[in-house]
Task: inverse folding
């Protein structure tokens, strides 16, 4: 299955991303766990189905991957697509357009938080909201960044030590 399109009833415009706990990176305040909330305003049944596994259980954090795919070479105005995929099937769960600088700033905050946090804790939180209500939340440790040609940009990605890709 490829990217989400009108054929699937979900569009990137149906998603809105809100971040919190990232300003401390620039102000020098005490690190706090970065958080991202993704609100979905499209057909909730379709996204709910994508967020559940074969046994109708909501996917766990370890069954999902989060990534940024740049749409052009990285510079200060680069755009990208943030995606959440099902790690088991490789299917896209959701994707939305975001400015690369904003996402890289979020990753920088997650990296900084991870340097202060217990090694077992997630580096950031993701909450997916359907119809204005929380549906699922994940503590995540990895956030991969790919260039516009599909190559992994390790220096910009959030990859915990000891993880092989």
Result:
């Amino acid at each position: 299955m490829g990217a989400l399109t009108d054929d699937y009833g979900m569009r990137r415009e149906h998603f809105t991303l809100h971040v919190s706990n990232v300003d401390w990176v620039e102000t020098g305040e005490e690190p706090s766990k970065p958080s991202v909330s993704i609100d979905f305003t499209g057909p909730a049944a379709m996204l709910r189905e994508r967020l559940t596994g074969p046994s109708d259980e909501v996917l766990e954090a370890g069954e999902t991957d989060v990534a940024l795919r740049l749409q052009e070479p990285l510079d200060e105005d680069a755009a990208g697509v943030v995606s959440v995929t099902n790690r088991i099937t490789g299917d896209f769960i959701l994707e939305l357009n975001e400015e690369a600088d904003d996402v890289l700033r979020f990753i920088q905050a997650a990296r900084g938080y991870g340097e202060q946090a217990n090694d077992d804790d997630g580096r950031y939180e993701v909450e997916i909201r359907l119809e204005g209500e929380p549906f699922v939340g994940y503590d995540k440790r990895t956030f991969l960044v790919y260039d516009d040609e599909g190559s992994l940009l390790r220096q910009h990605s959030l990859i915990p030590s000891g993880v092989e890709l």
